[in-house]
């Protein structure tokens, strides 16, 4: 089958890129040190790529929309808001004393609680419209962003630097302290929804068809929203917000694999995201000598592709 | 049997369904007729649990529908809504295969494949089975969706305006398929219809709605007559017997 073949090709490409990234420029004197840096970074890259690809694919299916990403829900703004709030109220020393792991768990917990609350409030009402959820998410996102900016303006410039560090996606100063915890949490999160993954194909037919075919729609959607919040928290905590990567990879996976089956789509999107990040990092590190952050490249390409998608959609 | 007991549904202050009670018998085609906004589709959606209700109960074979788990419910009752726009590109066979989801959970067994083939045959879509839905005509697409519902193999089949936007030929085809479903497979079919003459020619039982209430229910002779229809639609009607069918003129 063509779809399967393409997935094998993508996997091979990823394997080669990862090996290249790990092994390029090693010599007998520094290999130990270099690998001790590169291996965690590679794992983090793959984890970020996977969580972004996974969450975006699921999110687009839930909303039945090809040009949305979870950042529309305002989740990454919420993450920055939480960080800003902690620094604003208690100072960056508290943030440091709490430890990265605690901070991470706190943020993930708050984000999941927020998305559940948002969901609960909206779905109690009769016209359970996912677009209303998005609209509220968008407004809340802007709200959190403005609040964060407001607090950032007020605090000491040195403290601001701490927040700024978290504001921009950067794979060079990745937050690798929380890597293992993030890995475990996202693994558990995916495990927790493993049984519901088969429902994704049905969900892509829309709410009414899904209910007709025996999917417990509200429950499953809620579960997936929790998963999405966890995965978005993981990637945002590790490297900061990357808005366009998800959009880019999910659509590329759809174009490339030409299937509606999520077992292929998700794997394809994860592979493409991993390839994009590993390749981008390889270029940024070895070719551009760390001068350009990879997120700029990704957002530039992603933005162009987004405009292209908008133009294409409006034609149909 | 589907039993609806004093069901209430309101949006804000407006009651779209006001204390509606109804029994739908097994093995028959029951049609819901009435003007726009009379609550026909709303009742269909409430029975099939697509939307919630603000009062009353619905029983399916004596069991309260709210208590039935989603999967068993999907094996007993299926619904097809009028707007069937999909965001994914599917072939006819893929769409029909979705109908087996309540049984197969995504992994099709030999038995499921049988059901799919039978549904395609029933709707005469064998030749179009591997075409994409967007390559089909409106009538074929509607038949494909009906094939999905047939593959779902539920005892109760609810259809919300299945003849919407279809020409005469395709409408007749679909009504004949539904008739066969009832006659040969013993299904129970409930249809929301706008074309009164189709309702008159193909139903066993007709329920007439107006302003959120049932005005009158009964077999074709009881409903398709001048007094009842003029009351329901607030329009002048002439009803005549043509070839043993009751046909209405209201043009």
Describe the secondary-structure layout.
The complex is a heterodimer of chains A (about 325) and B (about 250).
Chain A: H1 2-23, H2 31-63, H3 75-90, H4 92-98, H5 100-124, H6 130-154, H7 157-167, H8 179-193, H9 199-203, H10 207-212, H11 217-239, H12 244-257, H13 262-287, H14 294-315
Chain B: E1 2-11, E2 14-24, E3 29-33, H1 40-47, E4 55-60, E5 63-64, H2 70-76, E6 77-80, H3 92-98, H4 101-104, H5 110-122, H6 138-152, E7 156-160, H7 168-185, E8 188-192, H8 196-202, E9 205-210, E10 213-218, H9 220-223, H10 226-233, E11 238-242, E12 245-249
Parallel strand pairs in B: 3-8, 3-9, 6-7, 7-8
Antiparallel strand pairs in B: 1-2, 1-4, 4-5, 9-10, 11-12
Helix pairs in contact in B: 3-6, 5-6, 6-7
Characterise this structure.
The complex is a heterodimer of chains A (about 325) and B (about 250). Chain A has helices at about 1-25, 30-65, 75-90, 90-100, 100-125, 130-155, 155-165, 180-195, 200-205, 205-210, 215-240, 245-255, 260-285, 295-315. Chain A is mainly α and about 325 residues long. The mean pLDDT of chain A is about 80. Chain B is α/β, with parallel strands linked by helices and about 250 residues long. In chain B, the strands form three sheets. Chain B has a six-stranded mixed β-sheet with strand order 6-7-8-3-9-10, with helices on both faces. Chain B has a four-stranded antiparallel β-sheet with strand order 2-1-4-5, with helices on one face. The interface of A and B includes residues 64, 65, 211 and 260 of A.
TL;DR of this structure?
Chain A has 316 residues and is an all-alpha fold. Helix content of chain A is 79%, strand content 0%. Chain B has 251 residues and is an alpha/beta fold.
CATH architectural designation of chain A: Orthogonal Bundle
> Could you say which overall geometry of chain A the principal axes of the C-alpha atoms support?
globular
Question: How many individual helices of chain A?
Answer: 14
Radius of gyration of chain A: 20 Å
- Total beta strands of chain A: 0
Q: What integer value in Å does the Rg of chain B equal? A: 18 Å
Most extensive interface between two protein chains, with residue counts: A-B, 19 and 31 residues
Order of helices and strands of chain A: HHHHHHHHHHHHHH
- Give a quick account of the main beta sheet of chain B: strands, pairing sense, barrel closure: 6 strands, mixed
Tally of individual helices of chain B: 10
Mean pLDDT of chain B: 90
Question: Overall 3D geometry of chain B?
Answer: globular
Q: What is the topology, as strand order, of the major beta sheet of chain B?
A: 6-7-8-3-9-10
pLDDT under 50 segments of chain B (min length 5)? none
Q: Biggest β-sheet of chain A, characterized?
A: none
- So what's the CATH class of chain A? Mainly Alpha
What is the percent of helical residues of chain B?
Answer: 25-40%
Average pLDDT over all residues of chain A? 82
Specify the CATH homologous superfamily of chain A. Answer: ABC transporter involved in vitamin B12 uptake, BtuC
Structural class estimated from helices and strands of chain B: alpha/beta
């Amino acid at each position: 089958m063509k779809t399967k073949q393409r997935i094998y090709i993508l996997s091979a490409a990823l394997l080669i890129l990862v090996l290249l990234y790990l092994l390029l420029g090693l010599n007998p004197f520094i290999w130990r040190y270099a690998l001790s840096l590169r291996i965690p970074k590679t794992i983090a890259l793959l984890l970020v790529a996977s969580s972004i690809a996974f969450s975006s694919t699921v999110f687009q299916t839930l909303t039945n929309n090809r040009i949305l990403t979870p950042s529309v829900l305002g989740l990454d703004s919420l993450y920055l808001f939480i960080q800003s709030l902690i620094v604003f109220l208690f100072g960056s020393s508290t943030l440091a004393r709490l430890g990265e792991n605690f901070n991470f768990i706190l943020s993930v917990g708050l984000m999941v609680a927020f998305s559940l609350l948002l969901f609960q409030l909206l779905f109690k009402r009769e016209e359970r419209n996912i677009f209303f959820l998005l609209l509220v998410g968008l407004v809340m996102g802007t709200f959190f962003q403005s609040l964060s900016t407001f607090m950032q303006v007020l605090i000491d410039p040195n403290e601001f630097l701490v927040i700024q560090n978290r504001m921009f996606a950067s794979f060079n100063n990745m937050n690798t302290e929380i890597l293992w915890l993030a890995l475990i949490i996202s693994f558990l999160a995916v495990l927790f929804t493993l049984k519901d993954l088969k429902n994704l194909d049905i969900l892509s037919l829309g709410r009414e068809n899904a209910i007709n075919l025996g999917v417990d729609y509200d429950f499953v959607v809620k579960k997936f929203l929790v998963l999405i919040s966890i995965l978005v928290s993981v990637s945002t905590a590790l490297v900061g917000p990357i808005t366009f990567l998800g959009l880019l990879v999910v659509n590329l996976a759809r174009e490339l694999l030409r299937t509606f089956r999520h077992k292929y789509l998700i794997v394809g999107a994860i592979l493409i995201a991993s390839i994009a990040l590993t390749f981008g990092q390889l270029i940024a590190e070895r070719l551009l000598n760390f001068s350009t952050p990879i997120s700029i490249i990704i957002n530039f390409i992603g933005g162009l592709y987004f405009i292209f998608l908008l133009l294409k959609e409006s034609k149909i | 049997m589907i039993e609806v007991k004093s069901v209430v549904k309101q949006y804000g202050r407006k009651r779209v369904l006001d204390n509606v009670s109804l029994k739908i018998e097994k093995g028959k085609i029951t049609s819901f007729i009435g003007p726009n906004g009379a609550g026909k589709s709303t009742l269909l959606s409430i029975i099939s649990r697509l939307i919630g209700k603000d009062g009353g109960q619905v029983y399916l074979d004596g069991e309260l529908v709210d208590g039935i788990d989603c999967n068993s419910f999907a094996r007993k009752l299926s619904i097809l809504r009028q707007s069937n726009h999909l965001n994914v590109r599917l072939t006819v066979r893929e769409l029909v295969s979705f109908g087996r989801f309540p049984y197969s959970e995504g992994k099709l067994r030999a038995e499921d494949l049988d059901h799919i083939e039978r549904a395609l045959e029933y709707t005469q879509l064998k030749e179009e089975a591997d075409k994409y839905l967007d390559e089909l005509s409106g009538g074929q697409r509607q038949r494909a969706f009906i094939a999905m519902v047939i593959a779902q193999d539920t005892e109760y089949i609810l259809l919300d305006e299945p003849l919407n936007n279809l020409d005469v030929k395709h409408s007749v085809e679909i009504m004949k398929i539904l008739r066969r479903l009832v006659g040969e497979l013993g299904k129970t079919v409930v249809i929301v219809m706008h074309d009164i003459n189709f309702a008159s020619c193909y139903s066993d039982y007709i329920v007439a709605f107006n302003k959120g209430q049932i005005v009158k229910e009964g077999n074709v002779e009881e409903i398709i007559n001048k007094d009842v229809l003029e009351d329901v639609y607030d329009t002048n009607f002439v009803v005549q017997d043509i070839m043993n069918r009751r046909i209405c003129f209201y043009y």
